[in-house]
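Reading a protein record of the kind used here takes only a little practice. The record below shows the convention in full:
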Amino acid sequence: MSGVAAPRSSEPSARSARLTLLTASFGTLLVLVDYTSPLTTLTPTAASLGAGLTAQTWTLTGTLLGLAALLLTMGSAADDFGRKRVFGAGAVLMLLSTALSAAAPNTGIFLTGRVLQGCAGAALLAPSLGLVGHAFPTGPARIRATGVWGAAVGLGIAIGPVYAALLEKAAGWRAVYWVLALLSAVVLLLTVFGVEESRNERPRKLDPLGVLTLGAGASCLIAGLAEGRYGWGRTMVVSLLVAGVLLLAAFVVVESRIPEPMLDLALLRSPGFVVSCSGALFTGLSIVGLMSYLPTVLQKSLGQSPLAASGILAIWSGLSFVAALQARRLATRVSAISQVAASLLVCGIGEAALYGMHEGDSWARLVPGLAIAGIGSGVLNAALARLAVASVPAHRGSMGSGANNTARYLGSSLGVALTVTLVAQASSSEGPAEATALGANDAVLAAAALCLVGALISLWGRIAERRAERAAGEDAGPAAVKTAA
């Protein structure tokens, strides 16, 4: 049959499967480290390059632009033209783009490197789960493997800010990117010598209109969200947001009219696929968005140093890493969709527990909320990784990963913009530090509410899934009786 996965005999050996998991997880970790590094190096980087406020915003947002614009495209290309090929190309581009940022003589070249790092991240992230899905057959081995991949997400977020703060203090901000370039070379070597190629037996036709409308739409939307932090009513901001929405609507129309779309819209009838994407969207919107800005809040309102702030954040991200590794123990008891719903609810409870910040508070009062949210995030990452592969046909695993991660990073961009806006709008007669704390309180309540919305959507998905299973069982009953007769 055309368009199906290769026979099981072509799958990697146990040793090759382990190397594939190591490479895919290391590449994923590298992308997250690269994304989070500027959280603690933004001030010295901006001072060295003479970057203004807008440029500082794009230092944080540039990678999101490349990620969200190309993730689904890279996932589709990986399925059709080779997952190893696309992943390796991502490693090469990550090496070149981090070296470009490290050597940048001015802000423009540095930001170009950051956007290209997002493009490289898309080429690494999108095929990663497809590689894992090909290497590990459905069952306990795949559940463990996707848990490891989900743990790499949490570990990357935990390591990134601390790694960057320590290295910047020891050798300057440029060293952060030179070391990332070196690590990219390691990923490339692992890919070349440790990963077997996998692709569809029959590559589909290219979808240039889909690539154009999705890439341009996501780029306009993220650019509008980034610029909106300095005033949502400006003509440029409104124009970018409207253009983004219209282009994404055009993408849906294009995908519904061509015979071999990049994103099969029929998958939206699958509760698992809907929860995979909506859960990832609300993860970015309500969790990644808030936690990405939390170190800044800790520095401005609680008086923490950049290194201390990243260490406090590591309570959340470190527990996320541990919980993702242990999430496999839930697989035989709780469905992936139920795990997404419960995890989002737990994350919301943890975020709500952060409420009540004031200037000069002890960071210790944040520990319970960060711990609860970290455990929820870890189970959530593992469950979403499992769903991203399981909710699509076997030969479309990278597309499922691309769709899942596109939703995550679009949500992250919107979540960061929402958090920054709520913090910036707060005011206090006691000064800017107290105003930042009060704004952060508004942001954590908004994030907790969004977690609840995401949990309710996932709960609907679980109900729809059970109805579908019940209906399938009823249809199979008469057929089974007839066959037995």
Observations:
- The chain has two domains: 13-196+271-469, 208-261.
- The longest helix spans residues 432-484.
- The CA atoms of residues 341 and 458 lie 5 Å apart.
- DSSP finds 15 helices and no strands in the chain.
